């Protein structure tokens, strides 16, 4: 059943629109700014004392960036602040560097996006911060891994490539009891389908590049945090010098206005495609958080308001070398990184080197799909033909 409009749809129309920023037009002007001018020395000195009170310097943003930040806060109630970063990866780095220091221990879900692991195993390691990866399905058992110097737990739910849904409230409770901060990568669900701050999370990041921008034409991330952690996160973003250009911020806000409508269509179409695959004789399993075959599906039902367009499926045992027969001749699914745009994408997903705590064992190749806004019947026909090509090549 397609979702009906709800309160979030009204919120998204008005969020971040202040008349003193827009001066009567619907959308905020795109301010291209580095230098901001002060009329008097007294005004300059007042601004130095309180640089976030108004225009100060381009790196701290203008109403173009502020409008998007304010609107994003409305999508994750409980956030005390939001900062834009030039990519999702820079948002992850800023969040981690904001709360960790040399000698600290960090727990990270084994299902984390690969570049997150790269930050942990590279940059953080070189700073003397130790990372330990945990089974995404660990739940409250995570308390067994918490050491006296464990300062943060990093979650991503559902996980990249394999889509395990995590028990965020249980993990948060265990982390809180030990005084560790909980960070989540909320890119898959966005604040519309999962509000981290209702589930015990302290810091939330998103790759806005994906669903918020929504049209595959800009790179951007954001970091939000509760009152308690916001000063540290804000300082980290500031000290790293992270900021985004006004044209990208404008595209982000434009995308956010239609996010709810787009997600409803991604959700409905992805469900149809996932169910088609689930019933198909050449498919071993489908890793879609709303299907029983996905680890943590009950947690998804308990905690999430919806599912989106990204999921994976596993082919029955076969020669991985024949995978090209499956993908190369597809009509609607294109091969490419990223997701969240209006176009459907397919990627052969390789887990080698991306798992250290758990090793999911699949009989055949793992494929990740992003279901775009095409007619799902066209996508199903495309996949049906690809499955026959793969099977007949055996
Ligand atoms: C793409 C992605 C990111 C990184 O976003 P970029 O804007 O490409 O840096 C982070 N987390 C997840 C889950 C992603 O899929």
Walk me through this protein's architecture.
- The protein has 394 residues and is of the alpha/beta class.
- It folds into two domains: 8-256, Aspartate Aminotransferase, domain 2; 259-392, Alpha-Beta Complex (Aspartate Aminotransferase, domain 1), CATH 3.90.1150.10.
- It has 14 helices and twelve strands.
- It has helices at 7-14, 19-22, 41-49, 63-75, 88-99, 114-126, 168-177, 190-193, 230-239, 246-257, 259-278, 297-303, 323-327, 376-392, and strands at residues 81-85, 105-109, 130-134, 150-156, 181-185, 203-207, 221-225, 283-287, 310-315, 334-335, 345-349, 366-370.
- Strand 2 (105-109), helix 6 (114-126) and strand 3 form a beta-alpha-beta unit.
- Helix 4 packs parallel to helix 10.
- The longest helix is centred in the last third of the chain and has 20 residues, at 259-278.
- The radius of gyration is 22 Å and the shape is globular.
- The structure holds pyridoxal-5'-phosphate.
- Pyridoxal-5'-phosphate binds at residues 87-89, 113, 156, 160, 185, 187, 207, 209-210, 219, 221, 338.
